[in-house]
Amino acid sequence: MPRAQPYLDARLASVYTAGNDMPDQSLRAWAGLITECSPVRSPDVLNVGAGTGIFAAALARLAAARKVVAVDESPAMLARATRHEQVRYLTADAAALPIAGARFDLALLSRVIHHVPDRSRAGAELKRVLRPGGAVVVRTTVRERLDSIVYEYWPELHALDAGRFPSESEIITDFTAAGLRATGVLSFSQPVQPSLQAWRDAVRRRPQSKFGQLTDVQFRSGLMRLDREIAAGGGAEAVSERYDVLIFAA
To answer: Is 195 a domain residue?
Structure first.
């Protein structure tokens, strides 16, 4: 029997927002970058793999999005999603969207591409639901540039993530095969927590699927490394996270 996707875990959904939220200033910067990729000023947005709606709500609240449809395969995630009058949530698979064609100007996949088993099929669905000239934004870290702060304290995660995160060329190849056209790749970083202690408090409940790859002993060892650095006076500055952003046109 195939292993269940970790993002379907109800426990993960219960801690996801608290462990992955970021300051409004950072959310605003991300929302601005994402909507700049749209061909129109006030886009209709599709957020695929929306989780608990952190970005769906931010695009509605902080950017010029006219409306946002947020889809996720996890009912547990959507049950805890941030509500906003401009955001509609649907339980759906990225490769089988229950949406009529040519409805959106912009699609966002944030930190979800490594969970998509058939990227070509998902790309074809994105192509189908986007208006001509619409854009797809993929926010991820590609295999060749895995540089998250988590690897400093849980180094075993680097090799594990390298086995599940696609490369830049793999994403481009699969989406191009689906009829999308690659238009740009960039790197963007924003603060997520004001200090290492605050970041430690956010990750202590394992709020990302990657932590499910670790044993309890491995996870506690990483927390101990963090605690030693904090006790020694390190990590007073803000903690930032960098992501690769791949942009495609329909």
So the answer is: no
Strand order in the sheet with 239-249: 87-91, 67-72, 44-48, 104-110, 130-140, 239-249, 181-193
Residue 33 belongs to some domain of the structure:
yes
Instruction: Give the CATH number, domain containing residue 109.
Output: 3.40.50.150
Which tens digit of pLDDT belongs to each residue from 151-202? 999 999 999 999 999 999 999 999 999 999 999 999 999 999 999 999 999 9
Tokens found for residue 32: 């601005």
d(CA 184, CA 174): 15
By C-alpha distance, which of 138, 193, 134 is closest to 167?
138
- Our CA angle for 39, 65, 177, nearest 5°, is 45
Q: What tens digit of pLDDT does each residue of 77-128 get?
A: 999 998 999 999 999 999 999 999 999 999 999 999 999 999 999 999 999 9
Q: Are strands 130-140 and 239-249 parallel, antiparallel or unpaired?
A: antiparallel
What domain count does the chain have? 1
